[in-house]
Amino acid sequence: MNDSSASTARGRDLRIGLVGYGFMGRAHANAIRQVPHFFRESRRPVLQAVCGRDEGACRAFASAWDAAHVETDWRRLVEREDVDAVDICTPNDSHMEIALAAIANGKMVLCEKPIALDGDQGRRMVEAVESAGLPNLVWFNYRFLPAVTLARNIVAAGELGKVFHYRANFLQDWTISAEVPQGGTGLWRLDAKVAGSGVTGDLLAHCIDTARWINGEIVSVSAMTDTFVKERVHTATGRKEPVGIDDACAFLARFANGSMAVFESTRYARGHKALYTFEINGEHKSLAWDLHDLNRLAYFDHAVPGDRRGWSSIHCTDGDHPYAGKWWVPGLCLGYEHSFVHGLHEFMRRLDDPSIEQRYPDFRDALRTQLVCDAVLESARSQRWVEVAKA
Ligand SMILES: NC(=O)c1ccc[n+]([C@@H]2O[C@H](COP(=O)([O-])OP(=O)(O)OC[C@H]3O[C@@H](n4cnc5c(N)ncnc54)[C@H](O)[C@@H]3O)[C@@H](O)[C@H]2O)c1
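^ thats the input. predicted complex w/ nicotinamide-adenine-dinucleotide below
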């Protein structure tokens, strides 16, 4: 930890207070460090303070990531005068409370996804941040991978013509054992009170954000969910308690542009660790992407003469590709962590110049994704098609 670095912070630095130092805390701290090295905004993000309830662990994190200050209560962090933006990396049940307190203290807010436990909480956050006029972001990071951004750019240019189909999967296998408990670091995902939902809010929210970004709004859904393990030991009580999350979810969707979609997510697909894939099929072209080969965009162009026509694989590592030219020489790969760097870069870029296109999801955008998640869960309960509420 470096207590003197606060005094060296420049007036135009964006001084970030990070809440939570788990998986996402590390991904964000890394992004804060890397943005100024590879992107040249006039403001520089600085990890000003980090907050966690375990002071020793928090100090170790602050030392590893060069944070100037440590807090053990987020209420104190959001009141700090030397913090411009609060970055929320805690489990979902605390997003709204921390965000509202940060906004009340005039802080910009960067919040992990999903925006909150449900759309009602999300609406309160949107109202608060928009009426305060504070810049805000939700970390749907997959948008910012070069191949995913390229897919979006190709579709936005109208190259696919009429879009017929969108399909996405997010498959994992880490909760198959009934011995995995619920509650605590990482495992809060299995506790519905803390997570809000299971794979729908955790994994499908990513697929929905990407889909909406690439193919526009989703207007209606028809879903089924299942909870394969009905009881798990809760780490807080040591007793077996009912499991309230969806272990698996599959849903059909209709987009506003008329195209149809299939989405599937599970934590019971033996052999898959984090297989996020999507494909979009239009009149003229198709595109497909796979997180396990994240630098490549599969591309099919029907305009190519028939005897040469086929799927090609665009390695999105050249200077022409989104973000790639800011890193290494052409042909060298980027990884998962770069998506967070690019997301923060987009936020910083727009702080510098609010007239440029906003390419990152803000609270209102994330609320739209949350409302799709809510409609999915409602459809699974009611076993009917459900219209997605308007944000
Ligand atoms: N964008 C992505 O790809 C992605 C990936 C993983 C998680 N997430 C999201 O990030 C958030 C955090 O997930 P994670 O995987 O980092 O979880 P985690 O369990 O690894 O870390 C959560 C952290 O929050 C801290 N925390 C919990 N309650 C707190 C409180 N009251 N005050 C201060 N600190 C508190 C914990 O001590 C821990 O450090 C969740 O909303 C999750 O959905 C997003």
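Residues 1-10 have pLDDT under 50 and may be disordered.
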